[in-house]
Amino acid sequence: MFIRTRNKLGSMMALVLVSALAFAGCGSNSSDAPAGQIKPTFVVKDTSAAVVAGATVYAIPVADVEALAAVALDSTATATTGNYSAEALAADEPLEDLIAANSGTYVSAVTDTAGKAVFADNLVASDRFFIAVKPGTADHLPGGSICREAKAGSTLNNVSTDIVVSTTPSSSATFVGTSQCLGCHSGYATMKKTMHKLGFMAPNAPSGLQDRSEFDANDGIYNMSAGLEKYTAGDAASGGTTIYFYDYDSTRKFDKFKTLESAPTGTVYATVRVYQDTTDNKYKAQFTNVINPSDPNSGMIHEAVLTYGGGVYKQRNITKIDDSLFMIPLQFNQQGSDASADRTRKVWRDYHMDWWVSSIVSNVSMTFKAKPAASASVDVQCAACHFNGYKLTASPTFAGYYTAEGVADANGELHPVTGVNQELNIGCETCHGPGSEHVAAGGNGKFIVTPANITPERSNMICGQCHSRPQGNGTFKNDSPLSSSNKMMIAGTSRADFLANQTSRHDAAVGDFWGDKLHSKSHHQQYTDFIKTAKYRNGTSLKTCASCHTPHGPGTGVRHQLKGTTSDNSLCASCHSTVVLASHMEAKTGTASMPASTQCIQCHMPKTSSSGAGSNATSPFVGDSATKYFTGDINSHLLDVPLKTSISSTNTMPVAYTDSCGFCHSQKSTL
Predict the structure, then answer these.
(1) What is the mean pLDDT of the chain?
(2) Residue 329: is the preceding peptide bond cis (ω within 30°)?
(3) Nearest Cα to Cα of residue 288 among 350, 243, 333
(4) How many CB atoms lie within 10 A of CB 382?
(5) I need a surface site. Which of 21, 164, 284, 538 has the fewest CB within 10 A?
(6) Sequence-ordered alpha helix ranges (H) in 328-414
């Protein structure tokens, strides 16, 4: 007997094909395999090599996953609120959603005490399936080592297939810090070179968990110290670099002031002078109220105790006030230029000076606050996605304010408030779960999340929790995806649980996209983009962030943690090996005469989003009607090719035409 299953978004039609031979033998059992053959058999063990009993192995028809892709995962489809529709929420976890809807009708079998599951009958040889495991207990996670690649029935019949599933720590597990992990897993020390580890740093003083050798003074626009180099020698009276804040615009988001290093012609409200103090070598910022010189807080000086970023696109600096941390209201753009016509692409950009001032409307009565509101602190705005083992504690002294902490780690960054070395950046446990039980058990795959062995949707969610734009469910309901108890999700959490428990708004709202309401305009929305693609839901190979990126870094595309290079298309070709670039270009554009340096990502991943100044701050493409098209610095992860017809003078989204093609092709081209 062979079984073919077919499902369309929860509607099941089972077609059982019985061969004539099954009825030929008097008294024969149709479930008996011919001599020397076995029915599809699976042996399930976990990453500690222990057998897994009571787990269900499912054969999910590829057609069902393909059908899910017809449901758009659009957070602006029903409104501008940033919430997904009920239909989308039933189709956004390709394997787990289908199992939930069809567990009673899919071909399946439960593992016995030896971890063995045997399907009742062979699968149709020509049909293809995703084989996924749903554990029967909470100490293992759904998925399995073979769940992401579709397999023909013929490759599963008459064989026994091994599947490895991931263990997971219990809810009682605690964080131990990356140094503890590297004690056994020293081969992953390369992660110290990644920007995930270099985010928060004492100014020009890397911790023992940080290696900035890929972002030093010899690395051009990737020089992590470029922003601090603006802090030239000075003291409380003079020296350093002065940045002017002028022409206030209340309609803008975080950059309500224009900024310039030289005195502008507009109305100057304030200046911030950054300098390295010659008396103690510390990096400092002095705030001067120009519009209201009588402000008692004018002239206040704050030390930059931490840097955030640098090396890739931008850098911001952080000061300590009482028990909390706050951003000094400046963003240094790595590729910025004061010659740029666009305010967002200058050397400096206002980063929430509005949080530091009061009475801005009346201008002359504007005053500096001694410190911004609690809701504006780094502790509640930023730290959640960066600190390994994030914990938020109410200040016992300053009512309404909080202190964010990471897990204690002797090699970590010195916390400016607590004075304790902590892991103030992403660590091993961010992606593998808290490690105390794993360490206590002697390692060996016990009580730890292995992202490669969980469903692709759960693996992507690890990255997606911070590479999307939800509003959290924590105390402040801001961009930090916190639960109601101000906790970050633990690695291995499902997307459904993440959205239900960690968010008050699912994802990016309409203002975070370009005019087509599809391509991301705001940064850190790579996951928001990616789940809309065919890479995420298809009938062949279910991709994850780790399909292209190497989490432990630095990889071949060092600074972006890529598994291959994009300059020669080798990364794309690792999957698309049958595509002949010249033939592809001719079929799509009508010409094969593209330069040898043509990159797949120039068309399929235009830089629609910006984190810093963008990559062409002073040389925008000038289109029809003299409209200027700037390019961002973050590649779209929709993996499509937005055409020139997608843009207009009111929707100046970067597309392949304005990013690459238009510099050679006629403006009348429809590429």
Answers:
(1) 91
(2) no
(3) 243
(4) 21
(5) 21
(6) 378-381
- Which of 179, 190, 201, 193 lies closest to 413, judged by CA? 201
Give the dihedral of Cα atoms 66, 68, 74, 78; nearest 10 deg: 140
Match 């949707």 to its residue by tokens: 457
Phi-psi region of 408 (alpha: psi -120 to 50; beta: other; left: phi over 0): beta
d(CA 639, CA 650): 23
Residue 242 to residues 264, 357, 467, 515, Cα–Cα distance (Å): 12, 18, 34, 37
The segment with the largest mean pLDDT, out of 22-26, 45-49, 619-623, is: 45-49
CA distance 617 to 221: 13
CB of 659 closer than 8 Å to CB of 607: yes
Q: pLDDT digit string (tens) for 340-359?
A: 999 999 999 999 999 999 97
Cβ–Cβ < 8 Å for 403, 323 = yes
Helices and strands (H, E) in the chain, number of each type: 16, 31
Q: Comparing C-alpha atoms, which of 103, 70, 100, 99 is closest to residue 87?
A: 70
Q: What is the model's pLDDT at position 662?
A: 62
Residue 532 and residue 338: Cα distance in Å, rounded? 37
- Among candidates 460, 447, 205, 199, which has minimal Cα distance to 309? 199
Rounded Cα gap, residues 623 and 625, in angstroms: 6
* CB hemisphere CA count around 301 (13 angstroms): 15
DSSP 34: P
Q: Which residues face 42 on adjacent strands?
A: 117, 161
> Poorest-confidence range of 147-151, 158-162, 450-454, 515-519?
515-519
Q: What is the pLDDT of residues 231-274, one digit of tens each?
A: 999 999 999 999 999 999 999 999 999 999 999 999 999 999 99
pLDDT at 527 exceeding the cut of 50: yes
Average pLDDT over residues 419-424: 99
**How many C-beta atoms lie closer than 10 Å to residue 110's C-beta?**
14
Cα 651 to its chain centre, rounded Å, is 25
Answer whether 463's CB lies under 8 Å from 430's CB.
Answer: no
CA–CA dist 372, 322 (Å, integer): 11
Q: What is the pTM of this model?
A: 0.93
Query: What is the widest separation between alpha-carbon atoms in the chain?
Result: 105
What Cα–Cα distance (Å) separates residue 408 from each residue in 151, 425, 436, 651? Answer: 45, 12, 13, 47
**What's the pLDDT band for 79 if we cut at 50, 70, 90?**
low
* Rounded (5°) CA angle 205-206-209: 155
CA-CA distance, 510 to 504, in Å (whole number)?
16
Q: Each residue of 601-615: pLDDT tens digit?
A: 999 999 999 999 998
**Which of the residue ranges 283-297, 344-358, 525-539, 610-624 would you say has the lowest mean pLDDT?**
610-624
Tell me the CA distances in angstroms from 128 to 62, 513, 561, one per residue in order: 6, 37, 33
Q: Where are the domains of the chain?
A: 2-165, 201-378
